Amino acid sequence: MTKTSVAILSGVAVAVVAVVVGGAWYTGKQLPGELDHALALSNAQLQKSLVNTGGSVRIELVSLDQRWFSSTAHYRVIARDVHANSQQVVNFDVGVTDQIEHGPFPWSRVKTLRLLPVLALSNTTLDKDEVTAPWYAAAGDRVPFSAQTSMGYGGSVDSQVHLAPVKLDDANGTSLAFSGMELGVSGDRDGKDSRFHGEADHFLMKLVSEDQPPVIFELNGLKLGGKLAATAHDNLFTGNADLYLAETKVTLGPRQQALVIKGGELSTLQSLEGPDTFGGRVEYKLGDITWDGRAVGKAQMIVGFKSIHAPALQALSNWYAAHLPEFEAAATAGQSAPQINMTEAEKAKFQGDLRTLLAAKPKVALEDLSLKTANGESHFNVAMDFDAPSSFDLPQDQALKQMVTQVTGKLSLSKPMLGDLATLQALLDGQTDAQAIATQSGQAGEMVGLMAVQSGLATVEGDKVISALHYADGMVDFNGQKMTLEAFAAFVNTQLAMLSPQR
Asked: In the chain, which end has fewer C-beta atoms inside a 10 angstrom radius, N or C?
């Protein structure tokens, strides 16, 4: 090797060392400000998300030990009087340790051949103490929660979260087994844009009580993912979020019968329509459904909404959450919704928020509720348009007419599908006579169609039992018959009373 080559290589080596050392020094100087920013952002998000819980959760930086190439941060996560539900209040105080490798080339990234420079790489673990010891024990004394997060010089954040497998067994037979989960989250340092994806193989919970048969919940093949962007409104994000379950199984009852759903999907999509309004849709899809080993079919539900005023909806949600204990107490006692006592100022604010929400002319639609069996498929859809009334002091029926401006709905029942359900019920009841089951199945759809036509609640078109409704301007078109809203309500009540079984 020539002297020139040696000189060049030496110069490169010195340059690399200078970059690494200088980058580490720069990271050390930047680190306190970045941690303060992250803490402020996290605590603000926690405060917003827990505004209706009646308590608080905050993260505190306990200490920061800075070195040239690495630093160690210790945090406390403190929860006080968080209402998990109406019966349970949560309080805890746990520690978290963060081992931070300074950039530009943290060794944890270099050894996995991730050579792009980053500001820092943090390795976060949950501390073991008297609060978290049971979680550690359930995880086989492994760290139950850990995360590795890289922070780019441009403000990007990329995290890999690991939940360790856990197993719990109570003396009474109640048990839980979880395979663990891997979750990836990336976005910007301000949490305005984020992408996430995660997977978990298996979750099983068995609930055992003295006077009831065991209930077993089993989930297999969980996948989730999405992309979300923050808006100017608290807790409102635009984008999509998707969840998939390869199999869901619930086993219950004296005979330990199993409900099995293969291929469950949940998809949400939300977008801003204006500065203060948003819309979206939610889709539920259930693949092959079986009950006690018998095929049921496939199902789906799609819900859409438009022109929802975000600030007004948030204010009304906060009001409802504040009075939730009163609503829950009434429901527990089997009573109707309670009369909430409000001051004039509270009443004025409530009505103002409600008027703002309705003045945006929101639209809500059950776009499709369907069940498909081997021989038929049934559908139901309904859409409702709303508007603000001229006054909230109007009689209830008049105010309702002004608030609900339009309703359109249609029910299409497949007679062969009804026959499939009748066959399923007969088999589940233990019937074995094939001819009798076939006869019962064939009669089921025809009987429903006949009763619907005789009552005027539906019409029959081929193998479909159809009921269609349109309402606007105080008038109802029901299966081609036009009548006032009052006349329609009286008609339906009469027909339903006639169809109800007599005691």
From this structure: C
Position of tokens 């948030």?
314
- Read off the pTM: 0.85
What secondary structure does DSSP assign to 74-125, as a single string? EEEEEEEEEESSSS-EEEEEEEEEEEEEESSS-HHHHTTT--S--SEEEEEE
Amino acid letter at 49?
S
The two structure tokens encoding residue 173? 């037979």
Burial of 395 (0-12, 13-18, 19+ CB in 10 A): exposed
What is the tens place of the pLDDT at every residue in 173-211? 899 999 999 999 998 878 788 999 999 999 999 999 888
Model pLDDT, residue 25: 39
3-state helix, strand, coil in the chain (%, to 5): 30, 45, 25
**Helix 415-428 × helix 434-455 angle, to 10°:** 130
pLDDT one-digit tens code per residue, 112-128: 555 566 777 889 999 99
Three-class SS of 6-59 = HHHHHHHHHHHHHHHHHHHHHHHHHHHHHHHHHHHHHHHHHHHHCCCCCCEEEE
